[in-house]
């Protein structure tokens, strides 16, 4: 059994700290074009079917804007959220093999002897595209201004 031997030199505080970020400290709200909303729906398998869903997206983006005012000077990037722990490193030994054909049969879709992953991440159907165009046409313009 081997353990990682990295020394814990974390800059992450041991106690959570929080200071409210004022609106005037944030960057100007971003415009989110309708085609980007379409991509987000396909990539994240999330649907923003109405104004309530779009409002939730806008609030999420505005919340993430707070990261722009975080002072990260002198903070090294984290390798893992478990960087303060010794982690078990498993051996790299082949226990079984010559079973690629059996494993590929478990996949819903393969291309040239590779898994297609994730199988649920597929383009929108024609019906969903029509609904999206209808939703987009209800917007005042082709973009959404974050709150």
UniProtKB/TrEMBL annotation:
Catalyzed reactions: L-glutamyl-tRNA(Gln) + L-glutamine + ATP + H2O = L-glutaminyl-tRNA(Gln) + L-glutamate + ADP + phosphate + H(+)
GO BP annotation list: glutaminyl-tRNAGln biosynthesis via transamidation; mitochondrial translation
Compartment(s) of residence: Mitochondrion
InterPro entries assigned: Asp/Glu-ADT_sf_sub_c (IPR036113), GatC (IPR003837)
GO molecular function: ATP binding; glutaminyl-tRNA synthase (glutamine-hydrolyzing) activity
EC number from the UniProt entry: 6.3.5.-
GO cellular component, one term: glutamyl-tRNA(Gln) amidotransferase complex
Keyword tags: ATP-binding, Ligase, Mitochondrion, Nucleotide-binding, Protein biosynthesis
Record carries keyword ATP-binding: yes
Chief location category: mitochondrion
Record bears the keyword Protein biosynthesis: yes
Family per record: Belongs to the GatC family.
Functional summary from the UniProt entry: Allows the formation of correctly charged Gln-tRNA(Gln) through the transamidation of misacylated Glu-tRNA(Gln) in the mitochondria. The reaction takes place in the presence of glutamine and ATP through an activated gamma-phospho-Glu-tRNA(Gln).
Database matches in PANTHER family: GLUTAMYL-TRNA(GLN) AMIDOTRANSFERASE SUBUNIT C, MITOCHONDRIAL
Assembly: Subunit of the heterotrimeric GatCAB amidotransferase (AdT) complex, composed of A (QRSL1), B (GATB) and C (GATC) subunits.
Protein name: Glutamyl-tRNA(Gln) amidotransferase subunit C, mitochondrial
Organism in which the protein naturally occurs: Umbra pygmaea
């Amino acid at each position: 059994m081997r353990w990682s031997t990295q020394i814990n030199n974390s800059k992450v505080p041991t106690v959570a700290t929080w200071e409210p970020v004022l609106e005037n400290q944030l960057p100007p709200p971003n415009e989110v074009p309708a085609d980007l909303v379409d991509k987000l729906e396909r990539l994240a398998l999330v649907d923003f079917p109405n104004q309530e869903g779009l409002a939730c997206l806008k609030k999420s983006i505005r919340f993430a804007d707070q990261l722009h005012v975080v002072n990260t000077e002198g903070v090294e990037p984290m390798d893992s959220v478990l960087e303060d722990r010794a982690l078990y490193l498993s051996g790299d030994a082949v226990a079984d093999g010559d079973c690629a054909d059996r494993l590929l049969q478990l996949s819903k879709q393969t291309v040239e002897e590779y898994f297609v992953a994730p199988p649920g991440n597929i383009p929108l159907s024609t019906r969903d595209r029509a609904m999206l165009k209808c939703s987009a046409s209800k917007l005042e313009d082709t973009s959404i201004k974050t709150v």
